[in-house]
# Entry
Amino acid sequence: MRSRLALLLPVALLAGVALPARGAGEWVIHERIPPDARDDLAMGVSLQGEIAAAIESGGGVVSAPDPARPPTDAEVRRPRASRSDVFAPDRDTSRPNIEASADPFTPGVSPFVRVAAYDAVDDRFQLRVSRPARAKVAPGAAVLRTDDRFYGDFVLDVAPGRPVPIPTVGPETRLVHARLGVGGRDLDFQISSDPAGNWFLTADAPARARLVVELAVARAAFGGVPGDPSWTQLPAPERLPANVALAAAAVSRAIGVSRQQRPREVLSLLVAYFRAFVDSDVHPPSRVDIYTDLALSQKGVCRHRAYAFTITALSLGLPTRMVTSDTHAWVEVHDGALFRRIDLGGAGRVLGDEGLANAEPYVAPADPFAWPANSERGADSARGGSAAVAAAASPATRSSAPAAPTLPDLEPPREAGDDRPPTTLTVQIAQGSALRGGELSLGGVAESDGERCPHLAVDVLVRFAGAAPDVLVGSVATDGSGAFEAKLSLPARLNLGDHLVFARTRGDGRCGPGASR
# Structure
């Protein structure tokens, strides 16, 4: 617990003001001031392990977890994140019920807590990590202007010589600061990472200890329009076993992808194909091999989609990882500059909401790929399961509703020194109302400084009766002329009544952040 002392006596004497007394001879010489994250950030306050007491996140300023806080009963009883050396696929393509699990990160990233990642395939069609070698993850990583920052808070049972898996927050997570300890006592430790980005902690003494980490990740790793490299500009993934490569070639032909296309085109086609999977209580029969049977049936939930996507992409030379949490699965794909997280949908029904309704949820960049209608996305489970609304309206709401928000209220935050001209988004909605779970059709254009903004990521959101919080309905990218069209599925959990529909963008290298008018 942190406290601050405001020394009032010298100030009072200099000002010539008499100090109040609580009783005879009892002078007030200090008072306890609650911690303030903005003050901590402004003054650069640090905690044990040199962890910043506060950081600026996508949603505002957040305070660090207390590194010296003793483990609570709930943390001790909580199951630890499970990680297996291989991912073995199954044929149960029905939509599962999933118990919610706690999110150790602030801002919260559920359900995308990165527990296990796999970047290679064996001859039994199982996913694994390409190499066993691990590299040291040293603290002290620089924080860049293009990064997003996070805290992690874990209770671990550690022992010498026993690596303990710890989750990470995103692709290529970097360690800024870390502290492992029991109360006020520090413990020596090391963190290492394998080629797929899985982290392990090894301590020098046995203990039940708290690990608090301060992390940085490139914001582009969580979304936005991917790069457009040539095949030779991509890092080469490990070659597939001959039998897997033969099966993957047949699947690629069926989908219509090949190395004759550019990597970004292949990626778009693969995302569209695997997002079109559907869950089914009728499981794919065993005909060829489990990968081929799943891929060509287009049946399955998140783990089946991510698994089959990974093998297909690797066979084409597109560096890809399948990543799992305790509640979801997705992929990370290298775009020539970095790995980017891509959600393929297929989320399960989340039971309960422990850890999912984080007080400070992370707001990721726009998803540039289209979603089929009625998709079950990972982000939906972070809001407590499949969601969405009864009536959506354009910014001209009915007179009974509160006034629509002003434009500055809708715009994303702009960093100091950002001199990009603002982007104006013009949005037209095809219908005046829509049912929860139904389809919302809209289109528009993006302009900045009198010119169109091509290939720009745009988020579409709704706000109930003019009052936050906003709900992300979907994300689209403008075409080469700066225009966009989308048919988006409205979440089933939205409130009944009038909603403001608006678009927002964080911009790109030329066009600055902005919102629809």
About this structure: The two ends are 45 Å apart (CA to CA). The chain has a mean pLDDT of 82.
